Predict the 3D structure of the following.
Amino acid sequence: MEYLVSMATHVPAGTPDEAVQDIRAREAGHSRELAAQGHLLRLWRPPLEPGEWRTLGLFAATGGGQLEEVLASMPLRVWRTDEVTPLSPHPNDPPPAPTSGAAAATEFLAAFALAVPPGTAGQTVADAKAREAQAAQDLAAQGHLLRLWTLPDGRALGLYQARDAAQMQAILQALPLAPWMTVDTTPLSPHPSDPAIMYPPNTAATGNAAARPRSGITQ
């Protein structure tokens, strides 16, 4: 199972810089180990307030218990608060495929809330959903849609990449279900310990910068 984890780090006042740098170095090393084990799939930096230290991580585990073991093993956990969101499969999640690897591309998380207008004919809804599924396939083939999940509240969560925010907005507005959806978009910045950076698409064991859990997750 996959999980999106928001990790907020609060360094205690008075902590020496040497101690902070030491634990950050150990965190980076352990992140490489978790990536090799198939637990850590992606890391990003979301938009931050001044002085804020927060990371978004995509993890894989057999369940909540194993995920907690993974998170507790990370050196920065002593200063960190984690918020875990379980991710369920979405029927339009594209199959694993190498990404374009465009250096100029920016990744985005987009959460979709669907509200079909009352009285809309069932066939109209079915047709729109079928066109949405085809659009997802097309966007994946173009390298824009990397992953798609279902959130616990029923919304969809997509991982996209686009040239910039304007192109991302154009992609979302062109979706067949766009007239019925409310979208919350979060731009993502690269994290130096992201497995997609450490293991580029052509060399990563997953073969996909968006990453799927490997079948041999270490227990």
About this structure: The longest helix spans residues 17-36. The radius of gyration is 18 Å. The first strand starts at residue 2 and ends at 9.
